[in-house]
Amino acid sequence: MNRNEFMRNLNNSLGSLNPKEIKEILYDYDEHFKAALEEGKNEQEIIDDLGDPVTIARMYVADSYIKKASREQSGTNILRAVFATIGLGFFNLAFVLGPFVGLAAVLFAIVTTGASLAAAGVIVLLKLTLGEILPVNMELLGSPVGHVALSISLISLGLIMVLVIAATTKFIYRLFVRYLKWNIQFIQGGSK
Amino acid sequence: MNVQFKKGVLELCVLAVLEEKDCYGYELVHTISENIHISEGTIYPLMRRLSQEGYFTTYLKESSGGPPRKYYRLTDVGRKELDRQRSEWLEFMQGVRNIIERRQPDEQE
User: Is the pTM for the entire model greater than 0.80?
Assistant: First the structure.
């Protein structure tokens, strides 16, 4: 690889960043080459010391996506940040993807359970009001009061679960972004 | 040398080098790579991130017979962060030394 190839690989792998950022990043490396050449190093030495341009580009991309996810909370942003971080190395696959999927699964499970409970509560109420029309066997409940009590319990419990998750999602999102930043700090790849 | 030792402490090293004096990119990278065996290319993304966190400011300065160079200067926020990381690291180092030299904590007095 020569200097032009290095810079080209770096440039191409930075693709998703905005042009201003890319220009600033490439400028740093141009300066590096200039200074190193002045000191008498040859191109090959310089490139060997710098390391793989694609790996380097991934670090910039991960930093950029994490910053974006931090500024603007959205599903897309956090997903991009997670995958960019994982792209930095295998260590991140275990420590980032694992927790991320686990966390998302738990949140999803609580929300769907909550929604189901609330729906069940609504069905019980409907059973009470619509009588024999619905094919739901609720013999055990006996009196209408029992129906209403069960219904309210189910709906309340269900709603509480959904609302708690809705309220804490923003907070959990922020915590996860910080976790990604911590990962980057300690896992930033590319040592000899 | 174990890769995990190096990565966590790279930020501390970058901040510490700039405490002494303002440096331009290559100078900083060179100072660090002289002392620790790392891929020099990984330092620039780190410096960019630390700049964005407000730990440095950058400015251009004329260099002898050439285009102006970009210099990095530590900010007050950067200094605070350096102190924080440095004391964490020194504490950690002492703890590790205690263990590997099999000393008790109170013996170091």
Answer: no
DSSP string, A97-142: IHHHHHHHHHHHHHHHHHHHHHHHHHHHHHHHHHGGGS----GGG-
Q: Does B65 touch chain A (CB under 8 A)?
A: no
Residue of A nearest to B65 (CA): A38
Query: How close does chain B come to A28, measured CA to CA in Å?
Result: 7
Segments of chain B with pLDDT less than 70: 1-7, 103-109
Q: What is the pLDDT of residues B16-44, one digit of tens each?
A: 999 999 999 999 999 999 898 888 998 99
The complex scores an ipTM of 0.82
Q: How far is CA A171 from the centre of its chain?
A: 13
* Whether A43 contacts chain B with CB within 8 A: no
| pLDDT value of residue A148 | 82
Residues of A in contact with B13 (CB under 8 A): none
Q: How many other C-beta atoms are found inside a 10 Å radius of the C-beta of residue A121?
A: 20
For residue A38, list chain B residues with Cβ-Cβ distance below 8 A: 66
